[in-house]
Amino acid sequence: MTVQVVGLDGDDTLWRNEEYFAASQQAFRDLLAPYVNGDIDVDQRLEAKERTNLELFGYGVKGFTLSLIETAIEVTAGRVSGAVVQSLLDLGKGMLQQPVELIEGVAETIPLLAERYRLIVVTKGDLWNQEQKLARSSLADLMAGVEIVAEKDLATYRRILRRYDVDPATFVMVGNSVRSDILPVLEAGGRAVHIPHELTWALEVAEHDGSVPTLRSIKELPAWLEENG
Amino acid sequence: MTVQVVGLDGDDTLWRNEEYFAASQQAFRDLLAPYVNGDIDVDQRLEAKERTNLELFGYGVKGFTLSLIETAIEVTAGRVSGAVVQSLLDLGKGMLQQPVELIEGVAETIPLLAERYRLIVVTKGDLWNQEQKLARSSLADLMAGVEIVAEKDLATYRRILRRYDVDPATFVMVGNSVRSDILPVLEAGGRAVHIPHELTWALEVAEHDGSVPTLRSIKELPAWLEENG
Fold it and tell me: Residues 63 to 92 of A: which have CB under 8 A from any B CB?
């Protein structure tokens, strides 16, 4: 069936995101370097902490910042200074204040898509922060809907398709995360287009079987939809 | 017009909430007592910090926990120990793990209301946490919809009324916060019923002009709707 509705992931599909996390993680390593010897893999400890805390915190910058602080306390055996903890808080605040930078091609492609299809942003993370990002992106007016969700799984996509009264066969989801943007959508009976981003958070890593259409840039999406949609 | 849709606030209307914040704040004072002399009003400093951070963090436990940590660093001039910061993290985690305790009367009243009206929960706070609370509340199946929102203002209520295709004249919102549950709903053309809770967060305090119907318990709501709805 013909595509009528295009779902769009936010972070690292419409706007840059993971690189700010990576930059904060680099600053985190630098701040802790005076405290830890080479035996401690700070990155690995942070990833383990994020994994453990995910069940309580969910996704987003606030939970990430809390995990930075908790990891810092652990790897320094409590010796981390108040000044360093404040620096970690400031890393988080800086991420929340970060101006939205659209991914290359988004600004010119989304208006083209909006002429032909109903567009729905489907994004996860902190509700407050994602709403601010969307408002700052100047894309909001082109969207038929915005769904900020706690998790992008089968139940979530089914709920969204019902809410907008969309036949899954007419739905294509576009995003950079195989785990969140591709696999659950295929399971829901929709189609998906993968636009990989150079950085992927460890907790998002997943693979598809190679049969999922993959584009190098969102700029290729209108032609792909024209041909395959 | 006859009431067809009842909006229900979550925190401190359906389930207990503010008392956990108050208990955490008491623990916070106790943890900081050895560091600060009587000249520093820790509560006032925390409230000021929450107010400043609100624009970045929005509502919910994660932002509260970050504000606890930042206030602790400030009032101790950076001398707060890693162990105390970990205790503050643990306060936040404890709040997120808190079993849901329904307010008295909710468990028996909501099923009665669900027989007569479409019920929509409208709640703010951390998306992840609010979804978990709703799931743990065993009320989810009785709801026609759940809206977890970043802010409960006029634009939000208008969006929800549109989304569910509700004539404002047939809508009643029920909640404990005059600022979030009452005033913006009246502005949107709906009605509102105030069920005060014994504790109200400083940033939520507002007053109405006395003309808003006020009930002592949600148990009085079915009869009130019968008579006035």
Answer: 63, 65-66, 69-70, 73, 76-83, 85-86, 89, 92
